[in-house]
Amino acid sequence: MKKLFLFLPLFLLNACQNNAHSLNGTAYQFQLNETPILIAFDKNENRYYGKVVNNYFGNFTQTGNKITFQETGSTMMMGPEKAMKAEQEWFKTISQISSYSQSKNALIFTLKDGSQIKLNKTTFPN
Question: β-pairing, 66-69 with 73-74?
Fold first, then answer.
């Protein structure tokens, strides 16, 4: 009986930690100032990438529903001024994301200031 009581808390702790769904292998999109933004999460590694005007990429760490995006790298092409401004705003926003929640068709990022961004699930890019 003692072994069961020792095992049960470990089992429950592990079950709670696995409640957060992995972002790996998913992709989402939304509009920022009428500019489409795509973010995808690598299937096998904690890497993210996407496209606004430029392609962008980086690493992320995830513990439960907490997420941290490391510095974003990108290509350096020019585009329409409105889209370029949206891209720069998105790159600043990524560093402010602190947690997320998921549903079947959406991802909600919560920023450090408490504001939220809702993204819609899309087809994973090849």
Answer: unpaired
Domain residue extents for the chain? 23-121
In contact, 94 and 72? CB cutoff 8 Å? yes
How many whole angstroms separate alpha carbon 30 and alpha carbon 11? 38
pLDDT tens digits, 23-65: 999 999 999 999 999 999 999 999 999 999 999 999 999 999 9
- Distance from the first to the final alpha carbon of the chain: 52
| CATH number for the domain running over 23-121 | 2.40.128.270
| Region of 12 on the Ramachandran plot (φ > 0 left; ψ -120 to 50 alpha; else beta) | alpha
5 Cα distance to chain centroid? 37
Which residue is it, tokens 């096998």? 44
Number of H-type helices and E-type strands within the chain: 2, 9
- Six token digits for residue 64: 């439960």
CA distances from 19 to 4, 58, 65, 91, 116 (A): 22, 25, 9, 28, 21
